[in-house]
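Protocol step 4 of 6.
Sequence for NadR/Ttd14 AAA domain-containing protein (Gordonia sihwensis NBRC 108236) entered exactly as in the expression construct, tag removed. Do not edit the line below.
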Amino acid sequence: MYGRQSRAVVLSGCSGGGKSTVLEHLAAHGYRTVDEPGRRIVRQELRTGGHALPWEDADRFARACIDLARWDCEDVVADRWTFFDRGLVDADTALRHYAGRSACSIEELQSYHARVFMTPPWPELYAADDERQLGLDEAVSEYGRLLRRYDELGYSVTVLPKVGVAERAELILAELGLRG
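Step 5 output, structure tokens:
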């Protein structure tokens, strides 16, 4: 793993808050991005008829997210900035919520860059779909759990303002010293 000055940066926050859109913007500008483990698992499970879905077996889903997030971390090149749509902290926080236990070590959970970026609840953007079936109230509760957990783990949290995608991406890059 990498340590607090890692170039592995997490974008977390409220479901439907615009994380994926910001990451698409960063990818279009040459940065490496890693898609959200949960979305990838849900797509696979829906395609294959599997049951590791948050609305069917939340414990199994969270454990699968942890496994995939671990693999994502191992796949990162240490000298290249990489932006993650969620990561181990998010998956482990879900497992703690659904099953009352953690599956990750503190070292794993603190392996990302010390600054994490959070998208707040943004009801005007939020939309449920086949892959995101939780309601906005549940997404807001999840956001609160994630804020607390990142804080407990000693991350410096920047809550992104509700502005355009390019402005959000520029704020992230500026806070990381990648601009100006």
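Step 6, annotate. The chain is about 45% helix and 10% strand.
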